[in-house]
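Notes from the 1:1 (GR / supervisor)

We went over the backlog. Supervisor wanted to see one worked example end to end before approving the batch request, so GR pasted a single chain during the call. The sequence is below; no edits were made to it. Supervisor asked that the structure be written out right there so they could see what the output format looks like.
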Amino acid sequence: MDYQEKFDSKIRWSDRVVSSSGEWSGNIFDFFFKVATKLTSDIKRPFKLDGIFRVDDTPVHKAVREALVNTLVNADYYGRQGIVIQKYPEKFVFENPGSFRIPLQDAFDGGTSDPRNATILKMFSMIDIGERAGSGIPGIVSVWEENFKSKPLYEQTSNPSRVTTTLDISEYVAIGEESSDNGELQAINEISSDKSSDKSEKSAINLQR
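Structure output shown during the call:
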């Protein structure tokens, strides 16, 4: 299992978590929590209360975690190349060996579940993570359409058998950059306005003299 953050095109990765490093347990459970935290660290958490308690979870956080669970639950751990999770500035990519065990359209429609590793799914379900009723992919699609105006991309290849899931957030990134530019422009205008105001005040003082 391999997690990579690729924020700089000049280097291979900005951060990496590998199950075979020997620096931690390397098991699926710990890999999930290490990677889920890193994947969702940059997602905004709007202020929301449930009674007197703050709710830090959002549908987007849940959808990203669901995509990660799907990758771990449906991977063929005897297959080639292993699990690779990649985080880019504009997208998340989840890759696992093994193919879909049901037709792709049935997976999109929901209601049908045939996980490759049912015991792993049960483990996650016991801590209230992962959908058991075959509603995982439809839920992710719904959240992505609502929040990012795009659909997740699911690709299935053979030789070796492999499934790749791509969650695009480029529109979110573009909006963030636009907001940043607008903020900088506003700051420049405010500075210019302050300078103009200072000049006006100085002119008024000179006229009084």
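Supervisor's comment: The helical segments are 28-40, 59-73, 104-109, 118-125, 136-148, 170-208.
Batch request approved.
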